[in-house]
Write a structure and sequence with these properties.
6 helices, two-stranded antiparallel sheet, 154 residues, two-stranded antiparallel ribbon, alpha+beta
Length: 154
C-alpha cells in the first residue's frame, strides 16, 4: 500500500508553530495536533493519489522543487520541513496559496488524464496505469468539476 497524503489549510498560529519547530519530533507533534482536529473544511485528503498528482502538476518527477510555480506547490511544493524519511511535511505560505488555488481551478479530470498519459514512471506509489489516474483527482474536485480550494488564513 502506498503512502497517504492530506493537505491542511493552516491558520497563522499553526503555521508559525510548524515553522518554529527545531527538529522532526517537535514537527510531528504539531502536525499530530493539527491532524487530531481533523477539520474537514480545512483539509484535502489525497490518499495515495498524491504521487501521480504531483507528477502531473510538475515536470513528471517525484522530487521536491521540480516543476513551475504555482502548480509545483500543490503537493510537494513549498519548504520541505521534515528531515527524516518517515513523513513528508511541506509548508506553502498563505501568500502563495491563492496562486496555487487559481492555477488548479481550470484543471479537470480530462486535463489530468491527458497529462498523465504523457508521463513515464521510474517508481510510483500508485500503479502508474489507467486505474491510477482514474483514482487521482485535482484537489478540490469531484469528477470533472473543480471547486476552488479554501484559502488559508493569513
Amino acid at each position: 500500500m502506498g503512502t497517504r497524503a492530506v493537505l491542511f489549510a493552516l491558520d497563522a498560529t499553526d503555521s508559525a508553530r510548524i515553522l518554529a519547530c527545531e527538529d522532526d519530533d517537535a514537527l510531528t507533534a504539531v502536525v499530530a495536533e493539527v491532524e487530531e482536529r481533523w477539520d474537514t473544511d480545512r483539509l484535502c485528503e489525497l490518499d495515495s493519489s498524491w504521487d501521480a498528482l504531483h507528477r502531473c502538476l510538475t515536470d513528471g518527477g517525484l522530487v521536491f522543487g521540480n516543476g513551475d510555480f504555482p502548480l509545483s506547490h500543490a503537493v510537494l511544493g513549498g519548504i520541505p520541513l521534515h528531515e527524516g524519511d518517515r513523513y513528508i511535511v511541506c509548508h506553502v505560505t498563505a501568500e502563495q496559496v491563492p496562486a496555487v488555488a487559481a492555477a488548479l481551478e481550470p484543471l479537470d479530470g480530462g486535463w489530468l488524464r491527458e497529462r498523465f498519459a504523457t508521463l513515464t514512471f521510474d517508481a510510483c506509489q500508485g500503479t502508474a496505469d489507467a486505474e491510477d489516474i482514474a483514482y487521482t483527482q485535482v484537489p478540490g474536485c469531484s469528477s470533472s468539476t473543480v471547486r476552488r480550494p479554501r484559502r488559508a488564513e493569513p
